[in-house]
Design a protein that fits this description.
By secondary structure, the chain is an alpha/beta fold. The protein folds into 2 domains: 184 residues, Alanine racemase (TIM Barrel); 114 residues, Lyase, Ornithine Decarboxylase, Chain A, domain 1. The protein is 30% helix and 21% strand. The chain is built from 11 helices and 16 strands. Strands 1, 10, 11, 12, 13, 14, 15 and 16 form an 8-stranded mixed sheet that branches. The longest helix is centred in the middle third of the chain and has 19 residues. The N and C termini lie close together (9 Å). The model has no long low-confidence stretch (mean pLDDT 95). It binds pyridoxal-5'-phosphate. The site of pyridoxal-5'-phosphate has 17 residues, from helix 10.
Length: 387
């Protein structure tokens, strides 16, 4: 389907909505598959980036596993057809109900984040006469050099087991009857574009791997998480993230035994660029020093700019001329942070024009809410409008 056909479709329906271009998604996943097959790496797609069933179906087709961070995501992954033995469950605050759901469905493993959590999983598994497989999420104290709200691998963050607790954790794993040690898990943050952070991660992983082997706990799987960033400024030219250099770093710096499996949990890098938020201009409001383009999408549809000052490339689909004007593109919600972009270079923009907010396939729809009782955003995808 051509861009012109897509835009014709956009004009025919109510705004705002997310549009997923599955051809773009498949192009990205093809590039990913080329790299992982080369190194025999395994993918667990991080559902929290985008759990739309259409997207999940594409991931299932590729044979990926699922990385879940809630009971809702565990259920969604099973509903979408992920194999239970390829579903992992992470998160600092797993409730008893969520742990029981995961136990009942015999998921692959829990990525456990604290000593207390291990004790609870052991207890709940005992009640069901089951053995829970455990990967330990370790906090490697690596600076991902990304926004402070999306860095997760520093000592000061709430995530992961701190190295100081390891002797107790190892003792528990050796004595708990309903826990089975499976491997190690790391995840240092999101939207990481300085790939040297991953080299530092690899060096820490090697240390932890050796430490556990010395303590007679053999990690069968090493899960290095997700976090690879995308280029939000050039979504067309850089559709495919830098998978080549990303995986090369792990190949070069991880020192593992040939039978240790390496798992990755990408979210954003797979889905960000296949999605866009399509919205219409309601009003052009001249300000004192600048003009506002008030659009019909708000922070309840896409919260990233308001939540962490995230950049999304914005364009006018109705009037593709010179970008010789500047607008602040704002939503209708009663919050000053309901702003998608400041001083956005756009052509002369008018009421009724269609606006695209690009690279919105990750952490967009999944974070949508009903603030101001605006309703939950609609979605369309390329396959359903092909005919
Ligand atoms: C969020 C998250 C991911 C995915 O991160 P991306 O930056 O979207 O690739 C992977 N693993 C865990 C444990 C996460 O919390």
């Amino acid at each position: 389907m051509t861009r012109a056909q897509q835009i014709a479709f956009f004009k025919s329906v109510d705004t705002p909505f997310y549009f997923y271009d599955l051809q773009k998604l498949r192009t990205v996943l093809d590039a990913l598959d080329r790299e992982i097959n080369q190194y025999k790496y395994h993918i667990h797609y991080a559902l929290k980036a985008n759990a739309n069933p259409v997207i999940l179906k594409e991931m299932v087709k590729r044979g990926y596993g699922a990385d879940c961070v809630s009971g809702g995501e565990v259920q969604a992954s099973l509903d979408a057809g992920f194999i239970p033995d390829q579903v992992v469950f992470a998160g600092v605050g797993k409730s008893d109900a969520e742990i029981n759901l995961a136990l009942n469905n015999n998921i692959s493993c829990f990525n456990a984040e604290s000593l207390q959590e291990l004790e609870v999983i052991n207890e709940l598994a005992a009640q069901k006469n089951k053995i829970a497989k455990i990967a330990l999420r370790l906090n490697p104290d690596v600076d991902a050099k990304t926004h402070r709200y999306i860095t997760t691998g520093l000592n000061e963050n709430k995530f992961g087991i701190n190295p100081g607790d390891l002797p107790q954790v190892i003792e528990l794993l050796n004595t708990a009857k309903n826990l089975e040690f499976h491997g190690l898990h790391f995840h240092i943050g999101s939207q990481i574009t300085d790939l040297s952070a991953f080299k530092h991660l690899c060096l820490k992983v090697n240390e932890f791997n050796n430490y556990f082997k010395e303590h007679q706990l053999y990690p069968k799987t090493i899960n290095v998480g997700g976090g690879l960033g995308i280029d939000y400024h050039n979504p067309e030219e850089k559709l495919i993230p830098d998978f080549i250099n990303f995986f090369r770093i792990f190949d070069r710096f991880l020192e593992l035994d040939p039978n240790q499996e390496v798992h990755f949990e990408p979210g954003r890098s797979l889905v960000a660029n296949c999605g866009e938020l399509i919205t219409r201009v309601l009003y052009i409001k001249p300000g004192l020093s600048k003009s506002f383009a008030v659009v019909d999408a708000g922070m309840n549809e896409l919260i990233r700019p308001a939540l962490y000052e995230a950049f999304h490339k914005i364009d006018n689909l109705s009037n593709p001329q010179n970008h010789d004007k500047k607008y602040d593109v704002v939503g209708p919600v009663c919050e000053t942070s309901d702003t998608f972009g400041k001083d956005v270079p756009l052509p002369e923009t008018r009421r009724g024009d269609l606006i695209t907010i690009q690279s919105a396939g990750a952490y967009g729809e999944v974070m949508a809410g009903n603030y101001n009782l605006r309703g939950i955003v609609k979605t369309y995808h390329s396959d359903e409008i092909n005919n």
